[in-house]
Amino acid sequence: MSRIGKKPIDIPSGVEVTVGAEAVSVKGPKGSISTPIHPMVSYKVADGVVEVMRSGETRQECAQHGLHRTLLFNCIEGVSKGYSKTLEVVGVGYKVSVQGKNIILNVGYSHPVQFPLPAGIEAKAEGSKLTVNGIDKQLVGEVAAQVRRVRPPEPYKGKGIKYIDEQIRRKAGKSGKK
Q1: Is residue 124 located within the same domain as residue 147?
Q2: Residue 40 and residue 55 in contact, taking contact as beta carbons nearer than 8 Å
Q3: Quick one: 154 and 107 in the same domain?
Q4: Helix (H) / strand (E) containing 95
Q5: What is the DSSP letter of 3?
Q6: C-alpha–C-alpha distance, residues 1 and 58, integer Å
Q7: What percent of the chain has pLDDT over 70?
Q8: Among 80, 101, 121, where does a domain finish?
Q9: pLDDT in tens, 101-111
Q10: Which of 5, 26, 28, 99 has its CA 20 to 30 A from that of 59?
């Protein structure tokens, strides 16, 4: 029995969950988002609670049960509170700024790197910190990972773009002649 799948999901006030033929759509104060329905999983919405049920007990059905419950929970959490990831730019002369729907990164290349933001994602730069916000947890994480890939942190001085809570494993530099 899936421990995650059998937990009911509470629907916060101001959030509306609609089960359709091919997708479950969720509307809330921050926007609307939908997640696809798998044929092995069914949904029941009643009294401010969503229950996710599966059709059988096979390994595949158990896996889909927990997965689709978590996807729906992430949608409800996203439209009510939203998700954010914070990145930090470390290095002498390294800067980050946001102009419209583009992130401008000056991270040691001969030219500034322009990173276009996809629809539904917002970014805010404060000094050397960049915060990526949105209602889709997967998209927020993917955009933050793509920004980090522009200049990943290097192990000697720790220069580059890193997550705010990331610990960089440092290496010792060259040792002098003996």
Answers
A1: yes
A2: yes
A3: yes
A4: strand 95-99
A5: T
A6: 10
A7: 97
A8: 80
A9: 999 999 999 99
A10: 26
Count the helices and strands in the chain (H runs, E runs): 2, 13
Q: Is the pLDDT of residue 1 over 80?
A: no
- Side by side, the strands of the sheet bearing 49-54 are 9-10, 49-54, 41-46
DSSP secondary structure letter of residue 119 = T
Among candidate residues 86, 80, 75, the one with its CA nearest the CA of residue 138: 75
93: which 2 tokens? 């002369």
The answer to whether residues 13 and 76 belong to one domain is yes
**pLDDT computed for residue 173 by the predictor:** 84
> Residue 3 and residue 53: Cα distance in Å, rounded?
12
128-143 exposure pattern, b = at least 16 Cβ within 10 A, e = fewer: eebbbbbbbbebbeeb
- The closest of 93, 87, 94, 159 to 123, measured between CA atoms, is 87
Return all residues near 97 (Cβ < 8 A) that are at least 6 apart. 103, 104, 125
| 86, two tokens | 């914070």
Q: In this model, does residue 178 exceed pLDDT 90? A: no
